[in-house]
Amino acid sequence: MRSVKPSLACGVVLAFFLSGPITEGQSGPKRINRIVELLENDQPAYYVGSHSGTEGTVEAGKRDALTTHADYITYDMEHAPLDFRGLAEYMKGTAAAGPTKSGHRVPVVVVLPVQGTDEMTVRANSWMFTQALATGVHGILLAHADTPGAVRAFVEACRFPVHKQGMDKDLPEGRRGAHGTPMAAAIWGISNNEYVRKADAWPLNPNGELVLGLKLEDKHAVQNADEILKVPGIAFAEWGPGDNALSHGLQEIPGAAQNHPEMRAARNKVFAATKANKVFFLEGFNVKNVESQIRDGVRLGGASPEVAEMGRKFSKRQLPW
Known about the structure:
This protein is an alpha/beta fold and about 325 residues long. It has 15 helices and eight strands. The protein has helices at about 10-15, 35-40, 60-65, 85-95, 120-125, 125-135, 150-160, 180-190, 190-200, 220-225, 225-230, 240-245, 260-275, 290-295, 305-315; strands spanning about 45-50, 70-75, 110-115, 140-145, 210-215, 235-240, 280, 300. Helix 3 (about 60-65) links the parallel strand 1 (about 45-50) and strand 2 (about 70-75). The radius of gyration is 19 Å and the shape is globular. The two termini are about 20 Å apart.
């Protein structure tokens, strides 16, 4: 990586919370985003996170970054308070914790309360994507992604206009502005210019380091799954069994609603659409299913320490964690 020449304003931030950025010629990770590096090597990525919210402090970020089993953190602001200042403090903490055994700073994917019901709704709320990305998160997960238009608007809002991949497939030019980069670049440990080059949607941009995900978590999204997942710029998708159960008129009883025939059909349709469009599928792992899930092609999911260990052994993970 090129040496960082921060502005005066950015220099204070850098001095406060960055530790040991990796430089060119130094052995270490091939990518900034560990999620990307794992998926490029066909390895599952395990996450930790909670719908009840995360404490938005530097100390919480440091603590969570020291997780011994998760490859990345999901930071929920869909059902927990929408607090960008707290998210920014949390990201400072994850950077201050330093690199993991794999050499990466732990990636964070944020879930926002934007409803992907239609294009206009996403456009009206795109400021939330801008605010979140400026804190240095490594990915965003769009809830209730119901239509292709909503997903195009989502991808458009998260990209800088200098990146042109996908525009030949009706993807609009990116709308992200230039002035939210200093903190994000510092969190990643790179210069502003390099951040602009790398903060793009992977795998659409092979050199990108952002992962954009979708929750196809209601009957409208399931119905449109094939067309939604044709939109360029999406790295992964999930089917959201809890919300899908409610959307399909089923009382959500843990462990029961997912086995309903209508629910299994919804899950299988979303999974098939991810495979057809080369989008990675996210679903939970447990002791009973981790090997079969990996064998079937699930590549992201929540997992306990025991289950993550089982999965890594089964997939013969080489990258340390």
